Every structure is written in C-alpha cells, then in structure tokens.
Amino acid sequence: MARSKPTDPPIDLLGPVLGEVSWFCCGTAWGPCSTTGKGACGTCNSGSMQHAWPNTSDACWAITRPDRCGDSLSRRTCGFRHKTTALCSGASVITAIADCGPQTDLFCGERSCCGATCASNRLIDLTPAAYSKIASLSTGLRPCEISTA
To answer: Which InterPro entries match (predicted)?
Structure first.
C-alpha cells in the first residue's frame, strides 16, 4: 500500500504538540468577560469547557497559519475534543472546539515559561472557565501540551 502525500493543511495529529495556551472571551458574560459573539461554531461560551483551534476549516487556516511558525496542526472541526496539559503544574482539561483561533502567525517565536519549562507559539485558546482549571487567568499564557482527548 502506497503512503499518501502530506496534505496542506495537515489532517492528522500524530502525537502531542507543545505550544502556548492562552484564553479568550466568547458568548455570554462570565468572570472577566462581557457578552461577545458565539464564535465560528456558534456555540462558544466563556463559562463552558471549550477552546479555539487554528485549523477548523480552510478559511480558519488561511487566517491563523500556524505552519508559518513551523507548527503542523491537524484539521479538527467544531466539537472535537482536545486535552490541554499545563507544563507548569501538570493540571489538564478536556475541551471541545467552539471557535477558530488563535491567530498563531501573529505570535511566531513568542515564548512563555515557568522556571526552565518553556514552549513557543500560541496554538490553542481556552475559554476562561477552561483555562482557570489549569492556571490562574492572571498568567495569560502558559506552556502546554495538546493531545487528542
């Protein structure tokens, strides 16, 4: 059986990826967030266990372009679940895709650390409710590992 050629954008997450996790507001008011839009999937809420992923569609990929930072991320659509583990604390959360983002190519080379543990490039945005399960919202960014749930 012949191997298929890699696709652009990539479609398979073959293993965990390291990157930065940040948080964003969406949907109804919650914690530090006022009411905002419901995201690309139409279901996003700041108080839910959800996230934004940079490769939910061709249109999303065209905006976020994590490949420009050297990151190949799988195509996953609304509702797909990822596990995000904070490298600083080991705490993890499972969330479902509810939006497109972050715009990774705006943050190529950005690096967040806790002690000697570091990761680069914003690859996933969690809702405040989800982010607060793995880190304080005041941290804003944390190095993380992202895997399929």
So the answer is: RlpA-like_sf
